[in-house]
Amino acid sequence: MHPDNLHSTKDDMVAFIEGHGMRRLPGHAGDDVPGILWEDETNPDSWKDFVEMAKTAGAPFITMSDVVLEKDDVELLIEELQEHHFPDEEVPEVDEAQVLVTHIGKTGYLQLGFAHQGIMFLHESATGWYERYQQLLESVNDFGNIVLDDGDEEEE
């Protein structure tokens, strides 16, 4: 079963981490930090194994971050998609973004992490709708990075 709201999973994580006598540090490990991502997609409770691994490694704390979908985020995404596809009225991506309104206020992403010997070990959990939200954001960003050659540059 893949829940569409990870809020209760977050509560379970907090209790499990505290039950192991560990502390939580609110923080997100970004892409610029050397890291290894935990891979065990077949086990929905693999985050428990991850917490136990952190304790075994002697980590004094675990970083924890979450993403809750906000109304402003969805509105901005829809606006950006509409601008990039103007004057097209029917754009499947805009329709997909509008469906995200049903997930406002839900937790779509969780990240746990611990540092060991200069490397961040990470565990990520995400809902299907959050992964699609990220894909739509990336498509907007990719489209915004396209540079059009207008032919006005001087040739050397």
Automatic annotation (TrEMBL):
This is Uncharacterized protein. It comes from Paracidobacterium acidisoli. It comes from the Bacteria.
